[in-house]
Amino acid sequence: MTTVQTIVDQFEKFAPLVYKEEGDPTGFQLGNREAVVHKLLTTLDVRPAVVQEAIDSDCDFIVAHHPLIFFPASNLDEADPQTKMYANLLRHHINVYSAHTNLDKAPGGMNDWLAAALQLQQVSGLVPDAAPVQGEMLSLGRVGYLNQPVTVAELVELCKQRLGVDHLRYATATLQKKVQKIAVLGGTGGKFYPAALEAGADAYLTGDLSYHITQEMVAKGLTVLDPGHHIESICKEQLKTMFSNWNKKFKWEIEVQASEIRTDPFYFN
């Protein structure tokens, strides 16, 4: 039998909690660490529809990228869908672990998955930590090179294809500008754009960009692409593969599935 804690211990060898950003609500978030796991669900977000998917699929452990609880609940009234979701997790004995900025920084983690999806080469860290962590220099984001220069218009189409998005926002001085060195940071990365400039990136790809920050970036010569926060859903299949490999290696005898629920709140016409 394999417990929640056994799986958590193995995962935290890959992405230790000491990697996380200060104040980030990352790690084991709900349930019983000693509970036996039979079926694990990987997801980007823990939302009511995902919890129902876990219930319907008889999953007893959810591993998500985004934290289950970003903001403390003000009450436990189940009339609130968020509170009801917590109650359903507890009723059905579903445990939840969130791997957020520890997964973002981990070598071979979120930002390496995004860089690989873009087929970047000579990849290095983008926003380094101030000091080594366990003797290793870690970074948020990655920067690397396309195999050849492309126009901004071509880069837009390339990103849509490789990241699986139908639409993205972009800003640039000219669509015919040639770009090759690309910085990428999953999630909300507007405040880190100086690191992209310092790295000599031609273009910076990240999510949730604001109007004025984007104006600043373009004024400083940076091409900007915002495919949305949801590109991090790449984690669902990547985590499924990771846990499936460990399942075989350590003979955990669990099932692993990736969530099929779309948690992106945005649609585009």
Strand order of the largest sheet: 5-6-8-9-10-7
Which CATH architecture of the largest domain would you pick?
Answer: 3-Layer(aba) Sandwich
Distance between the termini: 49 Å
Q: Quote the beta fraction.
A: 15-25%
Question: Could you say how many structural domains there are in total?
Answer: 2
Give the CATH topology of the largest domain: Udp-n-acetylmuramoylalanyl-d-glutamate--2,6- Diaminopimelate Ligase, Chain: A, domain 1
**E-strand count:** 11
Please provide a brief summary of the model.
Pfam families: DUF34_NIF3 (PF01784). With 269 residues, the chain is α/β, with parallel strands linked by helices.
What does it look like?
With 269 residues, this protein is of the alpha/beta class. The chain has 2 domains: 4-102 and 233-258, NIF3 (NGG1p interacting factor 3)-like (Udp-n-acetylmuramoylalanyl-d-glutamate--2,6- Diaminopimelate Ligase, Chain: A, domain 1), CATH 3.40.1390; 107-227, NIF3 (NGG1p interacting factor 3)-like (Udp-n-acetylmuramoylalanyl-d-glutamate--2,6- Diaminopimelate Ligase, Chain: A, domain 1, 3-Layer(aba) Sandwich), CATH 3.40.1390. It is 33% helix and 24% strand. It has 9 helices and 11 strands. The protein has helices at 4-14, 48-56, 81-91, 101-105, 110-117, 152-163, 193-198, 211-219, 234-250, and strands at residues 27-30, 39-43, 61-64, 95-98, 121-128, 139-151, 169-171, 178-188, 203-207, 223-226, 255-258. The strands form 2 sheets. The chain has a 6-stranded mixed beta sheet, with helices on both faces. Strands 1-4-3-2-11 form a 5-stranded mixed beta sheet, covered by helices on one side. Helix 3 links the parallel strand 3 and strand 4. Helix 2 (48-56) runs parallel beside helix 3 (81-91). The longest helix is centred in the last third of the chain and has 17 residues, at 234-250. It is globular, with a radius of gyration of 19 Å. The termini are far apart. The model has no long low-confidence stretch (mean pLDDT 97).
